[in-house]
Amino acid sequence: MINDFIDKLNIEKGSVLLLTENSLTFLVTMKKMDKTFNFNIFIDKLIEKLGEEGTLLIQTFDWRFCSGKKFDILNSKSQTSFLGNTALKRDDFIRTKHPIYSFAVTGKYKDKLANLNNIGAFDKDSPFAFIYTKKAKMMIIDIPLQNSFTFVHHVEDIEQVSYRYNKSFTSKYIDDKGIENNKTYDMYVRDIENNVVTYFKPLEKLLIDNNAMDIYTVKELVIRDIDLHKAYHIIEDDIRNNNAKSLYKIGES
What we know:
By secondary structure, this protein is an alpha/beta fold. It has helices spanning 2-7, 23-33, 39-50, 82-88, 110-114, 127-133, 151-159, 201-209, 228-241; strands at 16-21, 55-59, 71-72, 94-95, 103-107, 137-141, 164-174, 180-190, 196-198, 213-218, 221-227, 248-250. The chain has one domain. The chain is 32% helix and 26% strand. The strands form three sheets. The protein has a seven-stranded mixed β-sheet. Strands 3-7-8 form a three-stranded mixed β-sheet. Helix 7 crosses helix 9. The longest helix has 14 residues, at 228-241. The model has no long low-confidence stretch (mean pLDDT 95).
């Protein structure tokens, strides 16, 4: 049953795939298909589908560093993904270094991704930039674009939009050797004092109309497949020529 589900996903062998999921609805749906379902088997099947030349990234974001909490790269759990937390326990995955926006990665480019030392979450030397250059696809399982498409902030950072600014956060950081130090990392944050609200509803139509995103349903789960290379330039154009009106608004969310 899992094979049937994965066969219906638009995954190209040898590609770079970034994955995020609505953990609850995904788990419930999978359990309906197979009571013995577990996330490790699903990850195994994804890796098999991508093949030896493929690379899989799963979001493992953790915002607790922003409030002064210690980040342990080997032991701090993802706040965004059951799949990500499963991947972090596996020997075939490595976690990227940024304590706020990290990814569990495996496959062809896992060492290159894990060796990135970006201080800014969305900078030109970040995993977001890397997957753009590799023309990766992002697959979003049963989450609205509004709550899942963090890649937009990479483009906003590169374009230095006026409604966001760089903010530094310092806390304890334990690396993969178990060494603990105070470290400072940056994030390009929205200007909440001026009531800036992320608003991607217009962007969804732009991505579809310009063949950068497909939306389809598999076993009651809504799947969004995004070509990140195409999406980058659509977002860039909106920032430069439309005052980023497809990306944010002023007011209540």
